[in-house]
Amino acid sequence: MSLCEVCWAAEAEHECGMCRRRVCREHFKADAGICSICFENLCEVCGQRLAVDSCVVCGKLVCRRCSEDLQPGIRVCRECLSDIHDRVKRDASLRYLERMIEGSRGPPGRRQKYFK
Ligand SMILES: [Zn+2]
Ligand SMILES: [Zn+2]
Ligand SMILES: [Zn+2]
Ligand SMILES: [Zn+2]
To answer: What are the domain boundaries of the chain?
Structure first.
């Protein structure tokens, strides 16, 4: 018998499909096939991969694929990036992000990255 790697109290009955932790029934999200730790850290955009950070605009947990690192520690999800101009109009405090994005458009080939 092995113990749940989340609570270390109950017997592990399932294996997380993401991190491979062995977990008890209570710490296994059967619908998603993953443990509660992974479940709480899932990207809120795609719901498929583990989040690496949260979007500085909307606060959603996002994975690497669903977000862009504008600068170290400044991560913005694709949803916010795609309508950043509207968001800046509503909230002027986000203007620095717009500037960062403009700045990162410098080298040719990256121009289309943030704006479709
Ligand atoms: Zn447990
Ligand atoms: Zn897991
Ligand atoms: Zn994602
Ligand atoms: Zn966002």
So the answer is: 1-40, 53-103
